[in-house]
């Protein structure tokens, strides 16, 4: 039997997609990468995933694992040689268990993030991972890229939220590691090895994740901020004033939110006059375990002091859940507004918080000197040093001309990130977008260790080859 015939016998013909049926699986969310696949396999259990991997290993067929296909670096998109099998985890979508006493939830990789949040809330608990794509991204993809999101400041990224994993290895064995333990000092931490590996070492099929008590009250505010330096100082005041209750702190260039309200008239900034034209905005969220009044009192005191200190010109505090959602919707609509305005050169970087203001000022200057007139679309999670630093076309450029500059723009931005002690990938992963950039900035010993791990765990080289690290 041929490989496809064996695959169809294993999964059923309806779960092996080819031709036009495979098209949605071979293009990334940004439509930047379009590949071709030998087929798309849609198993519905860990055992069937393991059987597919064993079949691929026997035939030497490369495997590209895919979750919700919302990635931004092409990590879940096959190359255009048509040799790889796309392994969709979408049918592994069950919540296996919730343990309220242990504050854990065990879910399969194909569970949509929003469904996990809702299952936790129905059990009276909080699963805090939150990002713009939560209605379509899956837990498997979140784990594969070590996703961050808006609440990293308090709860950590996906790695910090994970206790145990179930993984299918590159030779089709199953590692049953779904332990709900917060202490397990019995050897190498394989869990952290697979998280963030983007499917290059094995396939994560399920995870045991941490839950938290639901906050009694939440307060959200949008502040008009005069500069990045003021935003950093405001963050320091918020940390001192709120402590661990500070859940999120987002910083956004004024042109980002001004584009949102221009392109989506149903949304509005809660300011008028000069504040609405502020060069920067900060979005803060406080989660309180005591009461609504206690949260509001703390919030108003700290923000009032910040305004008196000149760190903000105005503040709009949400009066209810609907207003809080509207403020977050402004932030989450920035990528949609970007898409409406046309393609841009995107960067997902992290820099020590103390050096972010200098990074933005220096990098903006370097880009303007070399590519006069390009635009800067800057927003991100200031609380954990993660910026989405994007470059848009100059008034006299079209998209093609801008994208032709990408290698040069990358070098300017990434060199500046490196000079400021940062990382060229904060939460989106490496994928195929940055795989050739990594050797420029990774410590050579670190990169060599990564290659050795890849060769040790995937000696046949079938797991998402050509992504993250080239062997």
UniProtKB/TrEMBL annotation:
PROSITE patterns reported for this sequence: FAD_PCMH (PS51387)
Keywords, alphabetical: FAD, Flavoprotein
Domain (FAD-binding PCMH-type) ranges: 33-214
Organism the protein comes from: Bordetella genomosp. 9
Family membership noted in the UniProt record: Belongs to the FAD-binding oxidoreductase/transferase type 4 family.
Pfam families for this protein: FAD-oxidase_C (PF02913), FAD_binding_4 (PF01565)
Organism superkingdom: Bacteria
Keyword Flavoprotein (UniProt): yes
GO biological process: respiratory electron transport chain
Protein name: Hydroxyacid dehydrogenase
GO molecular function: catalytic activity; FAD binding
Required cofactor(s): FAD
């Amino acid at each position: 039997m041929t490989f496809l015939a064996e695959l169809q016998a294993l999964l059923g013909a309806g779960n092996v997609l080819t031709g036009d049926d495979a098209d949605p699986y071979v293009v990334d969310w940004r439509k930047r990468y379009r590949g071709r696949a030998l087929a798309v396999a849609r198993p519905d259990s860990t055992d069937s995933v393991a059987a597919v991997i064993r079949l691929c290993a026997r035939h030497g067929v490369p495997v590209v694992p895919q979750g919700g296909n919302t990635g931004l670096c092409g990590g879940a998109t096959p190359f255009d040689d048509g040799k790889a099998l796309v392994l969709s985890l979408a049918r592994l979508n069950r919540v296996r268990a919730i343990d309220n006493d242990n504050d854990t939830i065990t879910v399969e990789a194909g569970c949509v993030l929003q469904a996990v949040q809702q299952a936790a809330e129905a059990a009276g608990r909080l699963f805090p991972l939150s990002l713009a794509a939560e209605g379509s991204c899956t837990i498997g993809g979140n784990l594969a890229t070590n996703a961050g999101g808006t609440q990293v400041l308090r709860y950590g990224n996906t790695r910090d939220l994970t206790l145990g994993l179930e993984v299918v290895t590159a030779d089709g064995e199953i590692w049953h590691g779904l332990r709900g333990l917060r202490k397990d000092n019995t050897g190498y931490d394989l869990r952290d090895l697979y998280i963030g590996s983007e499917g290059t070492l094995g396939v994560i099929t399920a995870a045991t994740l941490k839950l938290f008590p639901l906050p009694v009250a939440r307060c959200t505010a949008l502040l008009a901020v005069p500069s990045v330096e003021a935003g950093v100082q405001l963050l320091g005041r918020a940390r001192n004033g709120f402590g661990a209750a500070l859940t999120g702190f987002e910083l956004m260039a004024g042109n980002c939110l001004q584009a949102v309200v221009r392109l989506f008239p149903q949304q509005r900034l809660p300011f008028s006059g000069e504040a609405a034209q502020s060069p920067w905005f900060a979005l803060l969220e406080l989660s309180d375990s005591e009461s609504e009044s206690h949260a509001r009192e703390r919030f108003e005191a700290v923000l009032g002091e910040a305004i008196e200190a000149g760190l903000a010109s105005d503040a709009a505090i949400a009066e209810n859940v609907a207003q809080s959602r509207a403020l977050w919707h402004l932030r989450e609509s920035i990528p949609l507004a970007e898409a409406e305005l046309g393609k841009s050169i995107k960067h997902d970087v992290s820099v020590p918080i103390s050096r972010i203001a200098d990074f933005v000022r220096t990098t903006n200057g370097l880009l303007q000197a070399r590519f006069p007139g390009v635009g800067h679309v800057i927003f991100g999670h200031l609380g954990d040093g993660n910026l989405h630093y994007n470059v848009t076309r100059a008034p006299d450029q079209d998209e093609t001309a801008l994208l032709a500059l990408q290698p040069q723009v990358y070098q300017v931005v990434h060199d500046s990130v490196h000079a400021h002690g940062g990382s060229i990938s904060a939460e989106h992963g490496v994928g195929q977008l940055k795989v050739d950039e990594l050797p420029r900035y990774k410590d050579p010993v670190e990169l060599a260790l990564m290659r050795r791990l890849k060769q040790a765990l995937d000696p046949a080289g079938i797991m998402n080859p050509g992504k993250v690290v080239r062997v």
